[in-house]
Amino acid sequence: MSEARELEQLRQQIDSLDQQIQSLINQRARCAQQVAEVKHKYAQPGEPVVFYRPEREAQVLRNVMARNEGPLPNEGMARLFREIMSQCLALEEPLQVAYLGPEGTFTQQAAVKHFGHAVTCRSQISIADVFREVESGAAHYGVVPVENSTEGVVTHTHDSFFDSSLKICGEVALRIHHNLLVTTPDQKVERIYSHAQSLGQCRRWLDQHYPGIERIAVSSNAEAARRASKEEGSAAIASEAAAELYQLHTQAANIEDRPDNTTRFLIIGRQPTTPSGDDKTSVLIASRNQPGALYQVLEPFHKAGISLTRIETRPARSGTWSYVFFIDFEGHRDDASIAPVMEELRNIAVDFRWLGSYPKAVM
User: Which positions carry the signal peptide feature in this UniProt record (predicted)?
Assistant: First the structure.
């Protein structure tokens, strides 16, 4: 058999499989439309109909990865299904998602990774603006950064929870790759723009390759790319998406100091999320200003054998040298092992707030 004949047979097989896949995707889409009809049918008068269920989507993606037999990697297969789910959800209700902008930021990439491309992403100037958009109902959900594996916590996100009733309903972990962007390949670099955290994440690389060059912190990496595209002698540290958006050339790729550089983002919304089977819970605790305060906060978790995944301290709004603790731990508040701990924390804290229980990042 000739090469041409073998290739023709394989292409015919691919065409046949494509037809079957397309038919099944449309069957799934029709099921999604029927789900919307059922939800409307049984909706209580005056109550909003909730179409997007983070816990259900997390369960579907976990199942996709668990049954995957290759050769596609688990994460690649999950991303394909994420887009199918995104398109199907859009048939039920097109989602409006607010994110920390401008266009081309890593937060926008996190929004697309979590929700897929079938949502409408709306850029916001600040983290506070993302919270306001969701609180007002102008957006269904918001996406905000909360911590980076190299540079640590994003304090503006934590502080926004002090005055907000919004709940955390999901998380996204995004590997962050930074690139040095210029207008032309042979451009002489006189100054480098980027977000302060990105400059910190590339500090050693910059010290080695561009010692003495001015580093200017701006509001976002996308803003850095915009400035670099307009100013002669300017470069930016930003993403591939920003390079494409502002038509910049990548002079050096993956310049972050740590190859595992990752940023965690939170999905915020107005409705609580039910258990998915593999969840996290976030709480805010204001303790009494007394010796052993931190021990009192942590002891209930130790006694119950609950694993803490993160603990951060922020100054309280009232009282000099008073602090609040932001704590993430494994489990959902509706789990039998978690509920008693939550009650004990309420009893020992000056102020206790449940910020949300949500599925762990799937991919």
Answer: none
Q: Residue 305: which domain range?
A: 272-359
Q: For the chain, how long is the longest CA-to-CA vector?
A: 84
Residue 322's alpha-carbon distances to 31, 146, 313, 355, in angstroms, are 53, 22, 10, 20
pLDDT digits 0-9 by tens, 64-75: 999 999 999 999
Looking at the whole model, is its pTM more than 0.90? Answer: no
Give the residue from 185, 178, 193 showing the smallest Cα distance to 234: 193
Q: Percent helix, strand, coil in the chain (nearest 5)?
A: 40, 25, 35
Cα–Cα nearest to 216, from 193, 186, 242: 193
Residue ending a domain, choose from 126, 157, 176: 176
What's the CATH number where 30 sits? 1.20.59.10
